[in-house]
Design brief:
heterodimer, A: mainly alpha, Arc Repressor Mutant, subunit A, three-stranded antiparallel β-sheet, 16 helices, 5 strands, B: mainly alpha, 11 helices, 6 strands, extended
Chain lengths: 415, 228
């Protein structure tokens, strides 16, 4: 029998050497040569004899054990490895099956408890209750460990090199999902084995409490109540662990799935293009246009001008005329109608120069307005016209160069 | 809805960019911040003008593009082809395509091997040299806000999700997988506008000019008749 104190002392003394070795042992076993070289790096001043002495001590204390059928390879003692993993907060994900096995055991214990009560064996009842309590603690410990391990899985996936393929990066996530989360979902479901097992144990304990009140106490009620509370805690913890597992892994799993879908989609599209040319980019794909759509009834430049006008819009205070005030003499004149202008033009016939006549009629007229009337009147079918030489005309604001017309009479008059 | 135009202080630059087909993302912090803070007024105003502003939750804004019937948009085809090629190329290299196209980057030095490997496909998009690849594809990607270029490195921006969505749509399109193995013609995509086209449509303006010219011709003809 190895003295526990000596093991603990060795672990404490050699922690700086053991901790880096743990990582190596997490990945597999080590040969004697690998172990010696690893320790040689960490203890540069030591002689080979010192390293041999150190390894001897670890082997004697059962910290290191030879691998079965490979006497020159070593691994950490499984118990020590678990203990060190706990200290290092390195958690390995357990199996969902383990939880199921624990539950079956809990159900069996509930059966023993019932039997012990029926034969009024107080000692056995207390022993079975303690066993049940310890098993529930085991499950709680395992759920806690699994949750930490899941955090580790997600962290490794998120922090691993972004340049390695996603499939590789998330391989652990996908495996964990399939092997742990998926079975856990079924286990913890409302009609799953977990709920059923918990309910059965709970029923036994509650019945026991009632019977004790009726028939007299065999064990302390507190023991029963404590065990019951721990069972409920286990149930809640399982649900929380599962929820956390989903929260951690589902987005990563979706990312991996999306990645696969994108890669497959691109390969499909390229295959189609290879076979049928660029126009084979499939209809199902969202159309990608570079030009925006407009349902506005106007040309694009009008819309653009309109938006710029909006952007520079500055509201001016509206000035309303006072009721008592008099209208100014130069109140804005109503725009002339085509009929009015045509009539005036007809009355003034013959016109030696239409543009000059317009300038006389509308000395204050804006250039674009004058040009509009010039165009409108010169083209009117009722006038007979003659083209004049090009010359300059001065409007209020501009100097316009054009070939005006002489309107010599009615078109039908000559005909 | 009441619009306070003084609030929309960046209306003109925002409209100008969106109208060009540009995708506004966090790369343009000022425009993006104003669009995301005043999303509703901008949408309402643009809708009144006949433009549908898309606010993609993945962090970008663009105008719903114009449906041009059977007319195929060469630029969109080229950019989609480039995305497909890049995804496959990166996956072949054992790299993560999403990590590159969703915020990652691609060096200019990576283009020649890409061009060599997919020469036959690039040929279909009338891209035969690295210059053409940069001119016809990567420059267009940056012009439309899909990527940003800095010292020979192209960084892909959130709007690239539109092309990744195309990959997903293709993957979900069972018909495509079926047609790949049949002789039926593949459906043509309703993509728009040749890239040589001006971004702003001048069709209506041209039509108006034609009217003017026709009217003038009529007037001259009438004149000649009268003279005769």
């Amino acid at each position: 029998m190895i003295d526990p104190k000596r093991v603990l002392r060795a672990l404490a003394e050699h922690w700086t050497l053991l901790e880096p070795l743990c990582e190596r042992f997490d990945a597999g076993t080590l040969s004697l040569i690998e172990l010696r070289s690893q320790l040689g790096v960490q203890l540069p001043d030591s002689t080979p004899a010192d390293v041999t002495a150190l390894l001897d001590q670890w082997i004697r204390l059962d910290i290191l054990v030879p691998v079965a059928k490979s006497p020159n390879r070593f691994e950490l003692n499984a118990q020590i490895h678990d203990f060190l993993a706990y200290l290092r907060r390195e958690h390995r994900l357990g199996l969902c099956l383990e939880i199921e096995a624990y539950l079956r055991h809990l159900e069996r214990l509930a059966g023993y408890i019932q039997d012990a009560f029926e034969i009024r064996d107080g000692q056995d009842l207390a022993r079975q209750l303690r066993l049940l309590d310890m098993r529930v603690r085991d499950v709680l410990k395992k759920l806690g460990n699994d949750e930490q391990a899941l955090v580790g899985v997600a962290d490794r996936a998120k922090t691993s090199d972004r340049q390695i393929p996603l499939r590789q990066r998330y391989a652990e996530v996908l495996a964990t999902w399939d092997e742990y989360v998926e079975p856990m979902i079924q286990l913890v479901a409302a009609d799953g084995a977990f709920e059923q097992g918990v309910r059965r144990v709970e029923q036994v304990l509650l019945k026991l409490l009632g019977e004790q009140q009726r028939l007299g106490q065999l064990v302390d009620d507190d023991l029963l109540l404590r065990t019951h509370a721990r069972i409920l805690e286990m149930q809640t913890t399982a649900q929380l662990t599962l929820r956390r597992a989903r929260e951690l892994l589902l987005p990563l799993r979706e990312e991996a799935r999306r990645h696969n879908a994108v890669t497959r989609g691109a390969a499909l599209a390229l295959s189609a293009i290879r076979k049928r040319g660029l126009d084979a980019v499939p209809q199902a794909s969202l159309p990608l246009f570079t030009r925006p759509q407009s349902t506005f009834l106007g040309s694009a430049s009008q819309v653009e001008a309109y938006v710029y006008a909006l952007a520079r819009f500055e509201p001016k205070p509206a000035q309303f005329p006072r009721a008592s005030g008099k209208r100014k003499a130069d109140a804005p004149r109503a725009p002339r109608t085509v009929r009015e202008m045509l009539e005036r033009c007809e009355q003034a016939l013959p016109l030696p120069d239409l543009m000059l006549w317009l300038l006389e009629q509308e000395p204050e007229g804006a250039t674009d307005e004058l040009l509009y009337w010039f165009s409108r009147l010169s083209r009117d079918a009722r006038f007979q016209r003659e083209r004049l030489e090009r010359r300059d005309y001065l409007t209020r604001e501009h100097c316009v160069s054009l070939s005006s017309f002489a309107l010599v009479g009615h078109a039908n008059a000559q005909a | 809805m009441n619009l306070d135009l003084s609030e929309l202080s960046l209306l003109a630059p925002i409209f100008r960019e969106l109208f060009k087909g540009y995708h506004v993302s966090r790369r343009d912090p000022e425009l993006y911040t104003q669009l995301s803070n005043l999303q509703d007024p901008y949408r309402a105003l643009f809708r009144a003008l006949g433009f549908e502003l898309v606010c993609d939750t993945r962090g970008f804004y663009y105008f719903v593009p114009e449906q041009m019937g059977a007319q195929v948009n060469k630029t969109a085809q080229r950019l989609a082809l480039f995305t497909f090629i890049l995804v496959e190329h990166l996956a072949d290299q054992g790299r993560d395509p999403l990590a590159v196209l969703d915020g990652g980057s691609l060096g200019r030095d990576e283009l020649p091997p890409l061009l060599d490997k997919y020469r036959d496909l690039f040929l279909q998009a009338e891209v035969t040299s690295q210059d053409e690849l940069e001119e016809k594809i990567l420059r267009r990607l940056t012009q439309l806000g899909f990527a940003a270029e800095d010292n020979g490195v192209y960084r892909f921006l959130p709007p690239m999700h539109r092309f990744l969505d195309v990959c997903l749509a293709v993957q979900q399109d069972r018909d495509l997988a079926a047609t790949l193995h049949s002789d039926l013609p593949l459906p043509t995509p309703p993509l728009a506008v040749e890239d040589e086209d001006p971004v702003v449509s001048l069709e209506n303006v041209l039509a108006e000019e034609e009217d003017e010219e026709a009217a003038l011709a009529r007037a001259i003809a009438e004149e000649k008749e009268l003279e005769a």
